[in-house]
């Protein structure tokens, strides 16, 4: 561990506890150090300089990732970042009600999202635009949610990607229940088995729902990967106020394995997620992954992080950028030339322009959409409600459209 002072409880009388309302200068420095280093237990396959590090345990899980596959991961991250930046700008222009930036978390989301198989199910919180993209959800669907004109009615089953959840930690219970169902229905036990992954933040680990999910998953051996993106902040609360231990170590108390991976290393996140999903598929779950990353932008567009964190922290993390290290690796190894990088950038710009065009001209969803994707099977009650509502609306048209 890089910074014992972060995790160690002070001796009585040795100074204020880490939970004091106002951190001391020593605590600020300790927190700063802790938030910029992942510690020796950090699994990393690609370091910030773009050098490939050997990992006897996890290399086999990315043995198929050649230069072409790595270029694919790079492109995914660039496109998702570009879409994120465009969406952030559109909120500033009044086109979206709010935006939740993913800046800095592209590797954690693309690495884990690309590790999933079609039969798997993912449960996001509200920042998982990269996972949505990896699951084939149209980015325009996400814009509808943040424009507040739509509830996000993609086909959850077809994409293996559940709706966004704003209530912190709640999706951990949903995912655990879903994974218990996979187990009860005999869908685990071999390489073709099913698994569930659920995304939540460092702050969410303090939520009761998350603990309950851990307990239920453990006692039922549920095939669920708990994927915690430790982006160091829960709005204005730093991670050291959530736990005395590195978060991944909590898994031990529940009786399953926990692992910390460099969340800015797409290769590391892919390898560790593939391993964890495979464990679950074979009936050896659950597993906790702590992806050690950093929220490079505000919590949401309603937040101003300059009020509560030092800019030095951001400057340090800029050197660990998840996209730049892949670019460096590809350039260094001859896996890509400048024309490739230029093409990806041009494609990302086109993608952003399409999103912008769509957003500015976004049609309101048809009124019947609110009734879609509610139940897996047809529901006579819901059908009756839909008919009643549509007939009510058509009354306005007959009365002159007002
Ligand atoms: C049950 C509940 N309590 C409080 C909130 C308000 N809230 C929204 S985001 C957030 C912080 C979450 O931080 P973290 O889990 O680290 O996720 P991150 O936003 O950093 O991805 C809080 C407290 C909420 N949405 N739900
Ligand atoms: Mg957080």
Give a description of the structure.
Helix 11 (266-281) links the parallel strand 6 (257-262) and strand 7 (287-292). Helix 3 packs across helix 4 (106-113) and helix 3 (67-92) runs antiparallel to helix 13 (322-333). The protein has 402 residues and is an alpha/beta fold. It has two domains: 24-360, Rossmann fold, CATH 3.40.50.970; 367-398, no CATH class. 44% of the residues lie in helices and 8% in strands. It has 15 helices and seven strands. It has a five-stranded parallel sheet, with helices on both faces. A two-stranded antiparallel ribbon has the order 4-5. Residues 127, 166-168, 200-204, 231, 233-235, 295, 299 line the site of thiamine diphosphate.
Beta-strand level of the residues, as a percent range?
Answer: 5-15%
Could you give a short account of the major beta sheet? 5 strands, parallel
**Class computed from helices, strands and strand pairing:** alpha/beta
Widest β-sheet, arrangement of strands: 1-2-3-7-6
Q: Using the CA coordinates, give the radius of gyration.
A: 22 Å
Fraction of residues in H or I helices = 40-55%
Q: What top-tier CATH class of the largest domain fits best? A: Alpha Beta
Name of the CATH architecture of the largest domain: 3-Layer(aba) Sandwich
List the helices and strands and how they pair.
Blueprint: H1 4-7, H2 25-36, H3 67-92, H4 106-113, E1 121-123, H5 129-134, H6 139-146, H7 156-159, H8 170-184, E2 196-201, H9 208-219, E3 224-230, E4 233-234, E5 237-238, H10 250-254, E6 257-262, H11 266-281, E7 287-292, H12 311-318, H13 322-333, H14 338-360, H15 380-398
Parallel strand pairs: 1-2, 2-3, 3-7, 6-7
Antiparallel strand pairs: 4-5
The structure holds thiamine diphosphate and magnesium ion.
């Amino acid at each position: 561990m890089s910074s014992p002072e972060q995790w160690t409880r002070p001796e009585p009388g040795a100074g204020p506890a880490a939970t004091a309302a106002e951190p001391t200068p020593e605590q600020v420095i300790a927190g700063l150090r802790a938030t910029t280093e992942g510690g020796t237990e950090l699994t990393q396959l690609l370091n910030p300089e773009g050098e490939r590090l050997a990992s006897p345990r996890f290399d086999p899980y990315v043995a198929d990732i050649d230069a072409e596959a790595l270029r694919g991961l790079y492109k995914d991250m660039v496109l998702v970042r570009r879409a994120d930046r465009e969406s952030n700008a559109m909120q500033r222009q009044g086109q979206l009600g709010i935006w939740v930036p993913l800046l800095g978390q592209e590797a954690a989301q693309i690495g884990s999202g690309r590790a999933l198989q079609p039969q798997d199910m993912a449960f996001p919180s509200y920042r998982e635009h990269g996972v949505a993209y990896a699951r084939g959800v149209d980015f325009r669907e996400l814009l509808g949610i943040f424009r507040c004109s739509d509830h996000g009615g993609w086909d959850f089953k077809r994409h293996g990607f559940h709706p966004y959840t704003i209530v912190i930690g709640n999706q951990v219970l949903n995912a655990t229940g879903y994974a218990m169902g996979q187990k009860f229905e005999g869908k685990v036990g071999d390489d073709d088995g099913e698994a569930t992954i659920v995304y939540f933040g460092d702050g969410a680990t303090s939520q009761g729902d998350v603990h309950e999910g851990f307990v239920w998953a453990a006692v039922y051996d549920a095939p669920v990967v708990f994927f915690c993106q430790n982006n160091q902040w829960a709005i204005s609360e730093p991670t050291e106020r959530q736990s005395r231990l590195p978060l991944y170590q909590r898994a031990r108390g529940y009786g399953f394995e926990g692992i910390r991976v460099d969340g800015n290393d797409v290769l590391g996140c892919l390898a560790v997620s593939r391993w964890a999903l495979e464990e679950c598929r074979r009936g050896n779950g659950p597993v906790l992954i702590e992806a050690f990353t950093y929220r490079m932008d505000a919590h949401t567009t309603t937040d101003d992080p300059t009020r509560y964190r030092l800019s030095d922290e951001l400057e340090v993390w800029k050197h660990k950028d998840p996209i730049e290290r892949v670019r460096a690796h590809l350039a260094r190894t001859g896996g890509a030339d400048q024309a490739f990088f230029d093409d990806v950038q041009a494609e990302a710009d086109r993608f952003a322009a399409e999103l912008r065009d769509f957003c500015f001209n976004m049609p309101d969803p048809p009124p019947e959409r609110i009734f879609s994707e509610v139940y897996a099977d047809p529901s006579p009650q819901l059908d009756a409600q839909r008919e009643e509502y549509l007939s009510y609306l058509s009354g306005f048209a007959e009365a002159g459209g007002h």
